[in-house]
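Researcher: We plan to redesign the surface later, but first we want a full-length starting point. Tokens attached.
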């Protein structure tokens, strides 16, 4: 009985997440597989949902700090995922617009422009043709607190 209830919930979740998939064949095949392998799929989905929930909680807590802290954390996250650290210095070979920085930090483009300009003047984050340089990662990290 519990297996039927779980299967029904999974079917609803799958069909909701798949939305208006173009082919009913792929939706049917996926749903059929999920129903047949519910003992394997359910724990995987539960684990993934837990991970997403943790990430969402982290993002919400990051978004409640000051604008400087949010921009600094966004840049540090990008350095961790797409950049490289060379000693105390970091290079982020990713050219972002000020609007993209604002969107990452949940602020306005004007605030992102002011913050990045001030940081450039103070040597915290330098904008280069193909991305950004953080001369002292520790200094940027200190702004996240």
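Model: Full-length starting sequence:
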């Amino acid at each position: 009985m519990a297996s039927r209830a779980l299967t029904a919930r999974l079917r609803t979740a799958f069909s909701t997440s798949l939305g208006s998939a173009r082919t009913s064949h792929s939706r049917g095949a996926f749903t059929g597989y999920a129903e047949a392998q519910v003992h394997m799929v359910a724990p995987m989905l539960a684990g993934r949902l837990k991970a997403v929930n943790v990430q969402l909680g982290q993002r919400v807590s990051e978004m409640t700090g000051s604008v400087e802290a949010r921009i600094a954390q966004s840049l540090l996250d990008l350095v961790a995922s797409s950049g490289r650290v060379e000693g105390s210095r970091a290079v982020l070979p990713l050219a972002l617009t000020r609007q993209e920085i604002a969107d990452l930090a949940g602020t306005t483009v004007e605030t992102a422009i002011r913050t990045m300009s001030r940081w450039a003047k103070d040597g915290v984050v330098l904008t280069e043709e193909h991305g950004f340089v953080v001369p002292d990662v520790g200094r940027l990290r200190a702004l996240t607190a």
